[in-house]
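Reopening this one. Same input as before:
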Amino acid sequence: MDLSGEWGNQRTERASRIQLSGIQVNLTQASGARVRERIQVHCAIIFTLGNSHRKAVHTMNIQIFGKKKSSDTRKAERFFKERGIRFQSVDMKEKGLSKGEFQSVLQAVGSLEAMIDPNCKDKDLLLLIKYLAEEDRAQKVLDNQSVLKLPIVRNGRQATVGYQPEVWKKWE
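Same output, byte for byte:
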């Protein structure tokens, strides 16, 4: 955005010209000094608002863990794409969560039960995890990530499990 102004003087009136993001505005007023001040203030506000919005978009570091064929994963990707927010998509069939990522999501979500999908296909594994000792559950889920609810969306230390656009809107 070019905020540099080019001001021309005439005997009875002042002609003011400023360029905002490719649009040229020409103003002619009798009280040129006040008009220039107002234009500069308005342009500074527009410039500040424009840049603050851009900074908010670029500071988000979104990772979406899911499956390519999952409708909730595709909806999550569409949610961020529509808002112009960059994200990294990770296919859980090819590459799962690392131990550090898993611990980060577990800490953000609060409990292992919130991360487990009760409707997963492997019911035997789900029952095994349910009846394992508390200290062994997290390792078993980390080793068998097919029981996790998807998509898992991370933004730094924040994370959600499942499709939760209400929470993602608060991240913006």
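So the earlier flakiness isn't reproducible anymore. For the record, Residues 62-171 form a domain with the Glutaredoxin fold (CATH 3.40.30.10).
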